[in-house]
Amino acid sequence: MSDISIHWIAAAIFAVALLHTFSAKQFERLSHRYPRHAGLLHLLGEVEVVFGFWAIVLVVVMAVVAGGKEALDYAESRNYTEPLFVFVVMVIAASRPVLRTVMSLVNTIAGIAPIRTELATAWLGLAAVPLLGSLVTEPAAMTIAALLLAPQIFRPHVPEGVKYLALGVLFVNVSIGGTLTSYAAPPVLMVATTWQWDSAFMLSTFGWKAAVAVLLNASIATYVLRGHLHRPSTNRPDLPTEARVPLSVVAVHLGLLAGVVLFAHHPVVFLSLFLMFLGFTQAYERHQSPLILREALLVAFFLAGLVVLGGMQQWWLQPIVSGLAPIALFLGAIGLTAITDNAALTYLGSLIVGISDPSKYMLVAGAVAGGGLTVIANAPNPAGVALLKRGFADETIGAGGLLLGALGPTVVAAAAFLFL
After folding, report:
1. Tens of pLDDT along 91-114?
2. Whole-model pTM?
3. Which residue range forms the structural domain that includes residue 26?
């Protein structure tokens, strides 16, 4: 079978995977209606499973139509560094010493703020932590923010519409909050070396505009949330109040996290550091909470599936990206990001020979502005879904609810990049 036929098959499977993502909540509801098949339906209702499942289908189909060697060669040619890194950084960032340190800092700042403590805590979780992503990377910021906000905002008794607004703000703010540096946001990383964009350029061209949008989005969301917040606890249920974490243990965790971030593009190094982390947590188990290995593995599976499926979509995406004028490219990037992945989109842009500087700006600005519209729009989003879905009805996050919740924050981000 020709390459053209395989590309069409891959595009069709990708479209089915998108439809599956948008209808995942329905599978969860069906699992309650048909208890005999609840296990399978619940599995298909897990958003994090969708792209990994359909990636396996794609490889199997490729093996049937093109041969096992070609299918295996394609699967092995993909770069899985990002899924591996997200897995590692999620687990370390969610560990008790790291999370307790961040929570203590947030609670201290909230306690001296001239507003109600619960409002200050929510605002810091939606604003300061996403901006922190420019230092510790977006996946780490998403993990910390989700665990910080979960007991305060993403609770069963908070109205669904309010939770979806907060979720949309969190996703958009994390997506644009990583643009203050050249290494923290996946869509920026894809072009930074090729286009010679350093952190000083990112801060002066994108970062300050993103910060304005982040602060505005967080302030609006906190105002809407004001009647639904309660005074936050200083501890999560799995963080015992009697167990103080020694500074030496905190220092080791933070040092390992810093090492993983520093070597984010070298899996041999950051996986070695992760093995050291696992050994350390076993040695000092009394200072640890259960690691979020399951959630992190599901997110890595999702992203690896996206890598496999997305690698076959270049044939139709790149002509669209290369054929648009700057403003049309900006709007198109926002829309395409919602159904692909903003890092994949900017990577395709980096392959265009002779792309103009205005087009470069519009492509990246649109890609990060649209990073909160869907689960697949930005690499850290599946991490947020995995950690926050239990606070929603049926313990699933609907694609329509997320889209509506993220529309307003996306408009704010787009306006900041266009008019500031």
Report:
1. 898 888 988 888 888 888 888 888
2. 0.83
3. 3-77
